[in-house]
Each structure stands twice: as structure tokens, then as C-alpha cells.
Design a protein that fits this description.
The complex is a heterodimer. Chain A is built from twelve helices and eleven strands. Chain A is α+β, with helices and mostly antiparallel strands. Chain A folds into two domains: 194 residues, no CATH class; 201 residues, no CATH class. Chain B contains six helices and nine strands, in the order βββαββαβαααβαββ. In chain B, helix 6 links the parallel strand 7 and strand 8. The chains are: A alpha+beta, B alpha/beta. Chains A and B meet through helix 1 and helix 10 of A and helix 1, helix 2 and strand 6 of B.
């Protein structure tokens, strides 16, 4: 196969002659591959972090009784529970605030003039605990850290409050109620509620509502219309669809995401950056392959003319030079892959050495490393062969009698 | 003596949108084994064109071309390439060698089924045994022209075709090249040379004068 033999013989001189351009392409590809792996790693990290895209708050929808229709859909416990059985819904809570007046601890009289609200605990939209446990049993509550500190209360203490009870005779009177403090939550993290809200179980809140209205708890569950409820769906992409569905069902619905405008501009920037980087790197590879091919094909025209005259067929010229371009691309890809691996390994080691330092973002070893190292040679080779195709074709189309028309150069 | 090339009443007119050039008037030519035929004539007379027609690089406008007893009118592009590769050895006016390949590599890639040993033999045959592994770009003009001859003869062609093979060569090198061409003919090849260089005349069997078609 003389076309293969020629390709073999010419590869080394071509590598030597175009080494600068080839090296630039290889370095670019190696760096770009690394940048892409690092970007993908950042995105994946952010998406999996609870304070990032994985936060259930972004997947939570606020529901109200008044939808687009004239007649409101009552937001009762049983209605909301029927909603939470829908596909993709991972949890829901009704929401109402019962006002109570703390009466302990006295003698300092700290609570003399304040009123706090008791609301059901719903984790996706409320601050996490600092200490203790979540409220689970009757009369168990969690307090904001600041409130607990000013009252000198801690986990395990009892908070006595006064709340309104309607007696059988219909009179409203204040009654002391003891609440068990089982946890403290971080009031530095912004939730959707007032600073003076404490959280308890839905059952406890329903019990308080029942006392206030003088009706049994079962009545509250069936009839009490809550001002709002929350619903969390499994995936971020389901939010819009669920909001739409709730609205057509007669509820008012708002995605919490829209309340937190610009949840992660950096992340969205990185995500948008990846394809741009890809396109630029691809275009640069193709442009360099094109210019190298043009240079090779122009400088080899006389020689190829002689080959055509002594009987080389067009297909042989085509395959020989296509092989040469693919080989150059392969060399570029292998160099780029080697560079990528060295860079990735060095940065990963450095980021491990100085924990949380300047290089903390450097991704550790992953399948992406192997994929990049294997695909770079292949992609570069194919890119070189394809980019040079039209130029190789022009060379192959050279007429055999061209040698008869030229003079010694 | 077997007739290898038979051209009957050949004409060639090059035509493009802008102009038509009659390169060859009606001409006939026969070349047999062991003959050295030289096509002589002034510049533009059509020598190279005739050579191109005889070696299947150019299709004539009219006339019949028979190569090794076969009418080639029906052959397509790659069929002509194949016949030329198998039965012809071509020496272009300028050697057009791969400057960064060695002498023997240039010969090796020239033809199908050529071993390294065959290629080396051909290089030695033209007196370049001391230059076998030198890069072609470093050879002298005369050496390059002889290497071009080695490339033409490596597949043991029946016909050697040379276009101005002595142009740019000094007397010593011209004589060396003509002697080699004569030797090949003596070994049974047919040799056709297009030239206006009188230095080849002592080595030829037959001289054909080509008169410019435009002049008639
Ligand atoms: N491909 C072509 N297209 C158009 N005209 C051509 C072509 N090839 C040759 N000619 C014309 O045909 C005529 C004969 O050309 P040819 O090259 O055969 O002459 P030549 O005898 O070899 O001349 P020289 O001694 O200068 O090499 C010239 O007038 C030339 O301009
Ligand atoms: Mg000529």
C-alpha cells in the first residue's frame, strides 16, 4: 500500500514542520478539556448541595385558597392531604399561626408584653435546628436561638404560655399551657416567617386552633380554612407544571423559587459557559486543522502532481493525505490528553494539600478524567480528518497532466 | 520488435469558455520496443501534449490510441491511471521529488508492490548507490533528475516517457541521463522523449519533428 507508506514517511516531517501550530492546538484542547471537567464538577457539586440547587426550598410551592376562579377552594387539611398524594409531591403542610403569650419565665418579666406565634414545622422552608430535635409529640416546640437566649431557656426546659380557650359556655378566657422546648433553630437563617414564630407539630397547632374556636379537633381538620399551605415536589423541573395544575384546580399557587430571585447566577453562568467553551475549542481545532491542511496541500502539490503522472489514483492520494491529517490530529489529541491528565493530577494533589485554599475547586479523580483522556485523541483525529476533507479532495482532483505544464521550480 | 504505442491521426484542441487552442494537428506515431523516439519542435508546438496523449494523461480530441495492443478509448480515469502506473515510467521536466524523504523512499512510494530492495536496486541502477539514504532535497540537480529516472523505472515499465529530461542539466549530467535512457531501450523498453535539446540526438533511433499546429 503505497498510500500508507507515503503517509508514514510524511508524518514525521509534517509533525516537525507544523509543531508550533500543533502544540498550540494540543495545549488549548488540554486546557479546555480540563476547564470543562472543572465546570461540570462545580455544577454537579452545587446541584447536590443542600444549600444549593438541591435545596427543597426551591422545589416548594406556596398555596392559597384564592385561585384564578371566582370561588375559592378551601385550604383544609383534608384538601391538602389529597394534593400531597399527587405524583412527584414529596410533602406538604398547612400553615396557620396561633398567637400565644409567654408567661414564663417571670420574675424578669421578659415576656410581659410580647406575643409569639405557633406554627406547624415544615422543614423545607424553615431554618434548620442548631440543637435538640424536631418537635414530634404533643406540646413539643422548637424556639429561635435569640428568643431562647433572652428568656434563659434551653433544650429540655418548659415554656409556659397563655392562650385563648373558648369554654363550653362560650366564654373566652386565657389558660396556661406548658410547652416542652425540644430544640433550638438558627434564627440567622432567613425563613418565611416572623422572627417571633416558634414551631410545633401540626397536631399541636390543630389542638390550639380547636381550643380557640371551641370546636373539636376533627372539626378543625375538616373545616378550618388555613391561610396558606406548602407543597414540595420531587424535581425542580416539575415546579412550573405543578403550579399551573394547582391554579387550574382553583388554588392560588406561587413557586418559592420565584421569591428567591437569582438563586444561583454563578451556576447558571457556568452552565451556559460549558457549551460556549466547547464551541470555541472545536472551532479553533477545526480552524487550525484547516490551515495546517491548506499549508500541507499547497506545498505538496508538485510532488502529488508527479505521483499522479506516474500512476497514483485519486483515491490513493485522498486516503494517503486523509490518513496523514488524522494522524496529526491523533498526535494532537494524545498530547492534549497527556497534558490534561498531568494538569488534573497536579491540581487535585495541590487542592488536597491546602484544604479549603486557593485550589479548593480543583476536581478530584473521576470517570470524567478517563473519558477525557480517551476521547481527546479520537475527537482531535476525527476533527482533523473532517476539517481537511475539502482540501485533501482538491489535492486528489489534481489532473495527471499537470506535470507537463510546469517548469523547474 | 513489438509496437507498444500506436497513435493514429491524433488531434488535440484545448477549449475553454474564453478560447480554443489547437495544440496538435493531425499526427500519427508508432513506437516499438528498444526504440528511442524523440519529439522535436519549438516551444508550444505540442510536444508535451503528444507525450501526454501517448501516456494516457491527456485524451485526444480525435484519433485512436492503442497501447500495448489495446484500444484505450473505453478506459475511465482510474483505468488510465492504472495502465500508466503499470506500463509507463514517466520523467517529468522537473523531478518534483519529496525533498524531506530519502532517495530510496521517493522511489519506494512511486509504484505499487515495490519492496525496499527493488527501490534500492533502482537507485543503484542510475548510479546513486552512494546517495540511497540521503534526503532528496539535498541531491544535486543532475542527481535529482537521475532519481526521477529511478522512480520511473522501478516498476520495470514497457515504455519510458520523458518531458524535457535534460533541461537545466549541464553536458556531463545530460550525457549521463541520455546514456541511461539508451541502456533502458537496449534492455527492451520503448523510450519517448519530448525535447528541443539537440544533445539527446546522438542517443535516439528516430526523430519526429512536430510543427506547431497554429503555424500550418
Ligand atoms: N491544458 C491546456 N489548456 C489550454 N491550452 C493548453 C493546455 N496545455 C497546452 N496548451 C497549449 O497547447 C499548445 C501546446 O502546448 P505543449 O505544452 O504541448 O507545447 P510544447 O511543445 O511542449 O512546448 P514547450 O517546448 O514550451 O514545452 C500551447 O500553445 C499551449 O499553450
Ligand atoms: Mg513541453
Amino acid at each position: 500500500m503505497r498510500s500508507l507508506t507515503l503517509a508514514r514517511y510524511l508524518t514525521r516531517p509534517h509533525l516537525r514542520r507544523y509543531r508550533t501550530a500543533l502544540a498550540i492546538t494540543a495545549i488549548t484542547l488540554g486546557l479546555v478539556a480540563y476547564a470543562l471537567v472543572a465546570i461540570a464538577d462545580q455544577s454537579a457539586n452545587a446541584a447536590n448541595r443542600a444549600d444549593g440547587l438541591a435545596s427543597p426550598a426551591l422545589r416548594t410551592i406556596e398555596i392559597e385558597s384564592f385561585g384564578a376562579n371566582d370561588d375559592p377552594r378551601p385550604l383544609t387539611i383534608s384538601e391538602v392531604e389529597s394534593l400531597s398524594h399527587k405524583e412527584g409531591v414529596t410533602g406538604s403542610a398547612v400553615f396557620d399561626v396561633v398567637q400565644v403569650a409567654p408567661i414564663s419565665p417571670n420574675p424578669e418579666g421578659v415576656f410581659d408584653t410580647i406575643v409569639v406565634g405557633v406554627a406547624p414545622r415544615y422543614l423545607p422552608i424553615q431554618p434548620p435546628l442548631k440543637s435538640g430535635k424536631e418537635p414530634a409529640g404533643p406540646q413539643e416546640v422548637v424556639l429561635p436561638v435569640a428568643l431562647a437566649e433572652s428568656a434563659g431557656l434551653g433544650v429540655g426546659d418548659t415554656l409556659t404560655v397563655e392562650h385563648i380557650v373558648v369554654s363550653d359556655s362560650g366564654d373566652r378566657e386565657g389558660v396556661d399551657l406548658e410547652l416542652a422546648v425540644v430544640g433550638l433553630f438558627d434564627d440567622q437563617v432567613k425563613g418565611l416567617d416572623d422572627a417571633l414564630t416558634i414551631y410545633s407539630t401540626t397536631d399541636t397547632v390543630v389542638g390550639l386552633l380547636a381550643d380557640e374556636s371551641g370546636k373539636p379537633a376533627s372539626w378543625v381538620e375538616e373545616r378550618h380554612v388555613f391561610p396558606r399551605a406548602f407543597l414540595t415536589v420531587e424535581e425542580l423541573k416539575d415546579v412550573d407544571g405543578t403550579v399551573g395544575a394547582l391554579r387550574t384546580e382553583g388554588f392560588g399557587a406561587t413557586s418559592v423559587t420565584t421569591l428567591l430571585a437569582g438563586a444561583s447566577p454563578t451556576l447558571r453562568f457556568l452552565d451556559a459557559l460549558a457549551p460556549v467553551v466547547w464551541v470555541i475549542a472545536g472551532a479553533m481545532t477545526v480552524a487550525l486543522a484547516w490551515s495546517i491542511a491548506t499549508s500541507i496541500m499547497t506545498s505538496r502539490r508538485p510532488e502529488v502532481g508527479a505521483l499522479r503522472a506516474i500512476g497514483w489514483r485519486r483515491a490513493e492520494v485522498r486516503s494517503s493525505f486523509a490518513m496523514q491529517m488524522a494522524t496529526l490530529g491523533l498526535m494532537v489529541g494524545v498530547t492534549a490528553a497527556a497534558l490534561f491528565l498531568v494538569l488534573a493530577a497536579v491540581l487535585a494533589v495541590l487542592s488536597g494539600i491546602q484544604e479549603g485554599g486557593l485550589l479548593a475547586w480543583a476536581p478530584g479523580p473521576s470517570a470524567a478524567w478517563a473519558i477525557s483522556a480517551l476521547s481527546l485523541p479520537l475527537l482531535a483525529s476525527v476533527a482533523f480528518a473532517l476539517a481537511s476533507l475539502p482540501i485533501v479532495e482538491r489535492l486528489a482532483r489534481m489532473p495527471a497532466d499537470a506535470v507537463l505544464r510546469d517548469t523547474r521550480e | 520488435m513489438t509496437t507498444l504505442i500506436e497513435l493514429e491521426r491524433i488531434t488535440k484542441t484545448y477549449s475553454s469558455e474564453k478560447s480554443t487552442t489547437q495544440a496538435l494537428g493531425e499526427i500519427s506515431l508508432r513506437v516499438a520496443t528498444s526504440e528511442v523516439v524523440v519529439l522535436m519542435g519549438p516551444s508550444g508546438a505540442g510536444k508535451s501534449t503528444l507525450l501526454g496523449i501517448a501516456s494516457l494523461m491527456i485524451r485526444p480530441t480525435s484519433g485512436k490510441v492503442t497501447i500495448l495492443g489495446r484500444d484505450v478509448a473505453q478506459l475511465g480515469e482510474s483505468g488510465r491511471d492504472r495502465v500508466r502506473g503499470e506500463s509507463f515510467g514517466l520523467i517529468p521536466q522537473s523531478p518534483r521529488l519529496f525533498a524531506d524523504l530519502t532517495a530510496v523512499q521517493n522511489v519506494e512510494v512511486a509504484s505499487l508492490n515495490v519492496s525496499r530492495a527493488n527501490a534500492r536496486e533502482a537507485v543503484e541502477r542510475v548510479g546513486l548507490e552512494h546517495r540511497v539514504d540521503h534526503r532528496a532535497g539535498l541531491l544535486s540537480g543532475g542527481e535529482q533528475q537521475r532519481l526521477s529516472l529511478a522512480r520511473a523505472l522501478v516498476n520495470r515499465p514497457s515504455v519510458i516517457v520523458a518531458d524535457e529530461p535534460t533541461s537545466g542539466l549541464d553536458d556531463h549530467n545530460a550525457v549521463q541521463l541520455c546514456t541511461l535512457l539508451r541502456e533502458l531501450a537496449d534492455d527492451g523498453a520503448a523510450v519517448v522523449i519530448a525535447t528541443h535539446d539537440a544533445r539527446v540526438l546522438p542517443y535516439v533511433t528516430r526523430q519526429i519533428d512536430i510543427i506547431s499546429a497554429g503555424a500550418r
